[in-house]
Write a structure and sequence with these properties.
Layout: H1 2-16, E1 19-21, E2 43-48, E3 54-57, E4 62-72, E5 76-86, E6 93-98, E7 103-108, E8 112-119, H2 123-132, E9 134-138, H3 143-157, E10 161-162, E11 171-172, H4 178-192, E12 216-220, H5 225-233, E13 239-246, E14 249-256, E15 265-270, H6 271-280, E16 284-288, H7 292-297, H8 300-311, H9 339-352, H10 354-369, H11 376-385, H12 390-395, H13 412-422, H14 438-442, H15 455-460, E17 467-470
Parallel strand pairs: 1-3
Antiparallel strand pairs: 2-9, 3-4, 4-5, 5-8, 6-7, 6-9, 10-11, 12-13, 12-16, 13-14, 14-15, 16-17
Length: 506
């Protein structure tokens, strides 16, 4: 009887509420029915907020699905899903009905009307739904392609096993195996339409005395993470560092936490040692010299004092990792990802590895809300009570002065900009270093594009305006040194692929 009443109510709602037709978001994926990396990610199909909300959408199995939020109170939430027009004689849809705290997974094979219920509702659930809704996800392609996509994604992040003499236990070897390299090239082609140019992997030796404190070190590595950073920003770098002369010795300063690197955190490494480690790790490296105009503004002593007294020894800046990238509520992601997917991912992570969720997201969300110690689920509900969607919380600018549980946080690019800022390079401009990703740095119009390169650099690559020191691939920087610094830059910039158009003044 209860089921009958629910179905009747659903029919009444269908006749009285506006039916919103959602487009097939999967069509945004080139070669949709394929096993491209990351194509296993589910697609957001609908978002139900109020009782009576109805959305029609296609899925991989059924051409038409109609989801309705039938009822919602303190004891139960009921949703109906009507599906029809199967694409194949036999197929199955894998659907997820999700809030940060409530989850229901349904395998749907037959046409008809299906009921989804959530029990044991708490006030946090209702508050979250009032702002963020109940999200419905499904896959974009067949199970075979999903498995293939997952395998191709894993290949980009995993190499062989080896032993690093600086570690006691065997770890993944620093060099990039060929299969891993090819998987990363495929990633960049699919999402950035970027095909790095190969070069002979040799170290270009020149007199290090031509390097000045503050000169920028541009780095990429075909290890999954760097291409992922490139995909997020649309850039051609995944890691950054700066050079500095301290007590007559040239060092590379960086925020680093690679498993392949002997040291972790914000650190300095003597030039010769860094070159050796970088070559062993299959880095692609170029040196970008500051332009004389900015070198004159830059106070080397102040920058080094800040590094030695404040930054050196800090942990890697995981807490602002994603916030250097996410600046808007809806225009920061490649075509397979949305803010909602980020929330889905971290909701799962918060249960299986809460310390990872805290490190990347939960603590930062708490700080933005003025709360402390809330779980991700509690924080999202509190955000709703404050009138903020999850997307709006993510888009809030990251500020340099925030003190996390492990102190100040600087991801690699944020550290470089902070080093320049505390050395006075930006003058009176109001700059938030923690809003800069690698691409934001190399597009700054602060570098010497007329740099007189040593002959060794010219012989290696006559076309580059800077020296590439090593790597299997050319460091080719789009829009190199083109954007004049200005206050509050990069705090509201979209980075929407595949074009990654940067709005003026963002």
């Amino acid at each position: 009887m209860k089921t009958y009443i629910i179905l009747v109510l659903s029919l009444i709602l269908l006749s009285s509420q506006e039916l919103i037709e959602n487009e097939d978001i999967c069509l945004k994926r080139p070669n949709m029915d394929s096993d491209e990396p990351f194509y296993f990610a589910p697609a957001l199909r609908a978002k139900l907020i109020n009782v009576g909300d109805q959305f029609a959408f296609p899925s991989s199995c059924f051409k038409r699905n109609i989801a309705t939020l039938v009822s919602m109170d303190e004891t139960q939430i009921t949703i109906t899903l009507q599906n029809s027009e199967p694409r194949y004689l036999v197929c199955t849809d894998f659907m997820v009905f999700h809030t940060s705290n409530l989850n229901s997974i349904k395998l749907i094979t037959f046409t008809g009307t299906h009921k989804i219920t959530f029990d044991k509702i708490i006030q946090d659930d209702l508050d979250e739904i009032s702002m963020n809704g109940i999200k419905i996800y499904s896959l974009c392609t067949t199970l075979t392609n999903e498995i293939g996509s997952l395998i191709n994604t894993v290949k980009a992040f995993l190499g062989g096993l080896g032993t690093d003499p600086n570690h006691i236990l065997p770890i993944m070897r620093p060099t990039i195996p060929k299969e891993m390299e090819e998987a990363n090239l495929r990633l960049l082609k699919v999402f950035n339409n970027y095909v790095p140019i190969r070069r002979e992997n040799k170290i270009v030796n020149f007199d290090k005395n031509i390097i000045h404190t503050g000169d920028f070190v541009a780095i990429s590595r075909m290890d999954g993470l760097d291409p992922l950073i490139m995909i997020g920003s649309g850039g051609h770098l995944g890691h950054t560092a700066v050079c500095s002369w301290i007590d007559g010795e040239l060092y590379v300063l960086e925020s680093q936490d690679g498993w392949y690197w002997p040291n972790a955190g914000i650190q300095r490494t003597k030039w010769e040692q860094w070159i050796e480690w970088a070559y062993n790790a299959d880095f692609n490296v170029a040196i970008l010299p500051l332009r004389e105009e900015y070198r004159k503004k830059f106070d080397e002593k102040k920058a080094n004092d800040w590094f030695i007294n404040v930054a050196e020894g800090l942990n890697y800046g995981y807490h602002n990792f994603i916030f250097t990238w996410i600046d808007t509520v809806d225009r920061n992601f490649p075509f397979i990802v949305t803010n909602e997917i980020v929330e889905l991912l971290f909701s799962i992570v918060s249960y299986v590895a809460p310390e990872v969720s805290d490190q990347f997201l939960t603590e930062a969300v708490n700080i933005r809300l003025g709360t402390k110690g809330l779980t991700l689920q509690q924080a999202i509900a509190e955000g709703a009570r404050q009138g903020k969607t999850f997307e709006e919380i993510l888009a809030e600018p990251e500020t340099e002065g925030r003190v996390y549980s492990d102190g100040y946080n600087y991801v690699c690019s944020a550290f470089c900009v902070a080093f320049w800022k505390h050395g006075g390079l930006f003058g009176d401009l109001e700059i938030e270093p923690t809003e800069f990703g690698p691409r934001n740095i190399y597009t700054l119009d602060i570098f010497d594009k007329e740099f007189k390169r040593p002959q060794e650099c010219i012989d290696d690559n006559p076309d580059l305006p800077y020296c590439q020191l090593m790597g299997k691939f050319v460091i080719d920087l789009d829009n190199y040194s083109t954007i004049k610094p200005y206050s509050h830059m990069n705090e509201r910039c979209p980075s929407l692929g595949p074009d990654f158009i940067r709005e003026e003044g963002c």
